[in-house]
Write a structure and sequence with these properties.
The chain is of the alpha+beta class. The chain has helices spanning about 10-25, 55-60, 65-70, 90, 110-120, 130-135, 160-175, 220-225, 290-300, 345-355, 365-395, 400-405, 415-425, 440-450, 465-475, 475-485, 490-505, and strands at about 5-10, 35-40, 75-80, 80-85, 95-100, 155, 175-180, 180-185, 195-200, 205, 210, 230, 240-245, 255-260, 265-270, 275-280, 310-315, 315-320, 325, 325-330, 335. Among the domains are: about 5-50 and about 155-230 and about 315-385, FAD/NAD(P)-binding domain; about 240-315. The protein has a 7-stranded mixed β-sheet with strand order 5-4-14-15-16-13-17. A 6-stranded mixed β-sheet has the order 7-2-1-11-20-19. Strands 8-9-10 form a 3-stranded antiparallel β-sheet.
Length: about 500
């Protein structure tokens, strides 16, 4: 049977990302109708406000201009993540390192051995950490869409981003939009989903279903009863408190995300043009809600008596099958991992793109396509969990059982254990990350490993390699001086764009 009608259950970032991916890939098929069904009664979680550079490929593919995106979504540039106090402050004092987005191979040359031999801060391999500290934009005014002096991604208002994606999908790809609250679904005699049932008991029939209904997981869980694979023994945080904080009109905007560790987790701090999105992530096994609220209020400099953050329980893990029968789950319906390293939107974007490249023409095509999709997506999830675990398990913090449990190798995956044993002998190399479905590779691992002072045996270097590294890294002061002269402050750049766009609209 040919697939002619597709339902995407749920809007938000996940639903409208899926709609744009499917629309961009399949809009040539005039017989295919794609409908996003969105409830007005289901609030967005709205904490996924950080990205990695991967998102640029999607925005360009959807035909969305960068200027429009930046202005309409209160967006700012993100040049990486500043990790604060992920090491023991009694040993290292107040400490931080950057995980910037620029590749740590200047001019394509691997300088890792030189950096370790000389005992240099690994984030000084390029100038991006300095640009972050100076609060500079990654772009000149003259740079075109999605072009900059250094690599970058974005912070944005998740609700406004979903609205931008919605308008683009409907206008550019003819995606239909239905406002309805789905309460359940029905199955046929073969176990496939046959219809959706609204709160008003209306039955809506489609051929294929994309479940973006968030934690409700109306189809993939409640209807198809797809098992959930918990990763709570590896990643032991299970709760987040979230709070938005206004920015003053003239307050500088940091061009990076801040991730500050505490005794039982960490705090995210994401700057937009008009506010900061913040969240206090913790393990309820090692910290009470009251203690978390007290520490969070102190971090935000808000009187605790006036502080009432939103609480989000976090069940870390994913579906055993992401594609089950004629349904694919995306976003929070697919799984959840804490937003360290902007994993949520990345996994959603990756999975939606993979689906559109493997979309079945008929129901009979599904068994052929779904096995590879499930295998690739599970691999991406497992390796992402490993990368998040890396941040915890190599920390030398001693201030609670939380960090001790994370260092217990019994909470590590076999693959992560093998990698870390190997990285004691030599630095990570590309062949350690052989699959293109590893969303974090040797470059990401190097920034985290050596930002946290992981001990690797010093490799041998010949004189030619040593001199080449000295020459390349010796150019950094010149590059930094040029950047200081030619790059604008982050807020100044964004304010200039907003004024220019306002003039165009008049």
């Amino acid at each position: 049977m040919q697939i002619k009608k597709v339902a995407i259950i749920g809007g938000g970032t996940a639903g409208w990302l899926a709609a744009n991916h499917l629309g961009a890939e399949l809009s040539h098929n005039s017989l295919l109708e794609i409908t996003v069904i969105e409830s007005q009664d289901v609030p967005s979680i709205g904490v996924g406000e950080g990205t990695v550079p991967y998102i640029m490929n999607s925005l360009k593919r959807f035909g969305i201009s960068e200027a429009e995106f930046l202005v309409k979504c209160d967006a700012t540039f993100k040049q990486g993540i500043k990790f604060v106090n992920w090491l023991d402050t009694n040993i290292h004092g107040d400490n931080h390192y950057y995980h910037p987005f620029d590749v740590p191979y200047p001019k394509g040359f691997n300088v890792t051995s030189y950096m370790l031999t000389k005992g240099l801060r690994f984030d000084s391999v390029g100038i991006q950490a300095d640009l972050c500290e100076l609060g500079l934009s990654p772009k000149h005014k003259s740079n075109g869409d999605y072009e900059g002096v250094v690599s970058y991604a974005y912070h944005f208002n998740a609700l406004k981003f979903a609205e931008l994606l919605s308008n683009n999908a409907k206008r550019r790809f003819g995606i239909k939009h239905l406002i309805a609250t789905i309460k359940s679904a029905t199955k046929d005699e073969f176990g496939n989903v046959s219809s959706l049932v609204t709160r008003d008991n209306e039955e809506l029939q489609f051929d294929f279903y994309v479940d973006c209904s968030g934690f409700s997981s109306i189809v993939i869980d409640k209807t198809l009863q797809t098992p959930f694979v918990s990763k709570s023994e590896e990643l032991i945080v299970d709760t987040a408190l979230v709070q938005q904080v206004d920015l003053a009109a003239n307050e500088e905007i940091r061009p990076y995300t801040t991730a500050t560790a505490h005794s039982a987790g960490w705090i995210w701090d994401i700057p937009l043009t008009n506010r900061r999105g913040t969240g206090f992530v913790y393990s309820s096994k090692y910290m009470s809600e009251q203690e978390a609220k007290t520490q969070y209020a102190k971090y935000l400099k808000i009187p605790e008596s006036d502080f009432n953050p939103r609480k989000i329980p976090m069940e870390v893990g994913y579906r055993e099958f992401f594609w089950n029968k004629n349904c694919v789950a995306l976003g929070l319906a697919q799984g959840f991992v804490e937003p360290l390293e902007a994993t949520s939107i990345l996994l959603t974007d990756f999975s939606a793109e993979l689906l559109c490249r493997n979309f079945p023409r008929t129901i009979e095509d599904i068994p052929t396509l779904q096995e590879d999709f499930n295998r690739a997506t599970r691999y991406a999830w497992d390796r992402t969990v490993d990368f998040i675990k890396l941040h915890y398990c190599i920390s030398d913090r001693q201030d609670s059982g939380f960090w001790e449990e994370n260092r217990d190798v019994r909470t590590w995956s076999k693959e992560l254990t093998q990698k870390l044993q190997k990285f004691k002998l030599r630095p990570p190399i590309q062949s350690d990350f052989f699959s293109r479905f590893e969303l974090f590779d040797d470059k990401n691992f190097q920034y985290v490993l050596y930002g946290m002072q992981y001990s690797t045996d010093l490799p041998n270097m010949n004189n030619i390699e040593f001199e080449k590294c000295e020459q390349i890294l010796g150019e950094n002061p010149v590059h930094l001086d040029n950047a200081k002269r030619n790059l604008m402050l982050h807020r100044q750049w964004l304010d200039g764009l907003n004024k220019a766009m306002a003039r165009l609209e008049r």
